[in-house]
């Protein structure tokens, strides 16, 4: 996988004719996202960071696939920065990804919003802004619950919410959420 990604990246950077081909750029972007996920799983954060920072959409008007890849890039790079302790940078990247997900378009980010919202709330908690994180979490929990076909993943959002409440010293509310989750999941 590493050699394939590097070959595609070299092809784009060394061949001016290929540089205008958004399709090839997107293929490289997909490979880079996957390789960065692999690096994150083995705690090789510097490799993940370098890979993600090296890819960008071509041109001023990204294609829908480039928008998706850009969203994934910012959300993953935000997570990497948070894990490295760079909370301010993390927050900027995660907010960029969140803004992309909220723009009216044909793109739907439902499957990614749970993790993004949790990462965003965690970064805000690390920056001593747990109330702002709580707002993001409650909004996403409500959005998922009010859909005609409720989305899964509510428990993870609620656990992140309990952490935000705990950081605000709202211990009883945090404990109530944890007990509720435990009763549903059957730990």
Which percent range fits the helix content? over 70%
Count of DSSP E strands?
Answer: 0
Largest sheet properties:
none
Content of β-strand: under 5%
The appropriate CATH architecture of the largest domain is Alpha Horseshoe
Low-confidence stretches: none
**Overall number of domains:** 2
Give the structural class.
mainly alpha
Alpha-carbon distance between the two ends:
38 Å
> SSE order in H/E notation?
HHHHHHHHHH
Number of helices: 10
Q: How confident is the prediction overall: mean pLDDT?
A: 89
Morphology call: globular
Name its key features.
single chain, mainly alpha, TPR-like_helical_dom_sf, MalT-like TPR region domain-containing protein
What would you say this structure looks like, in words?
This protein has 187 residues and is mainly alpha-helical. It has 2 domains: 107 residues, Serine Threonine Protein Phosphatase 5, Tetratricopeptide repeat; 74 residues, no CATH class. The chain is built from 10 helices and no strands.
Topology summary:
Layout: H1 2-14, H2 16-19, H3 22-41, H4 45-54, H5 64-83, H6 87-102, H7 110-126, H8 130-146, H9 154-167, H10 171-185
């Amino acid at each position: 996988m590493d050699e394939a990604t590097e070959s595609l990246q070299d092809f784009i950077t060394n061949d001016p004719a290929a540089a205008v081909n958004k399709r090839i750029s997107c293929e490289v972007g997909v490979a880079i996202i996957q390789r960065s996920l692999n690096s994150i799983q083995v705690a090789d954060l510097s490799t993940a960071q370098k890979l993600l920072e090296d890819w960008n959409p071509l041109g001023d008007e990204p294609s829908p696939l480039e928008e998706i890849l850009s969203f994934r890039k910012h959300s993953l790079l935000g997570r990497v920065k948070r894990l490295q302790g760079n909370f301010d940078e993390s927050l900027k990247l995660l907010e960029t990804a969140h803004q992309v997900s909220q723009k009216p378009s044909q793109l739907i980010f439902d499957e990614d919003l749970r993790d993004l919202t949790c990462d965003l709330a965690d970064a805000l908690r690390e920056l001593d802004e747990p109330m702002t994180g709580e707002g993001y979490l409650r909004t996403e929990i409500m959005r998922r619950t009010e859909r005609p076909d409720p989305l899964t993943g509510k428990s993870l959002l609620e656990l992140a919410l309990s952490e935000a409440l705990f950081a605000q010293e709202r211990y009883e509310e945090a404990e109530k959420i944890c007990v509720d989750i435990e009763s549903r999941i059957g730990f």
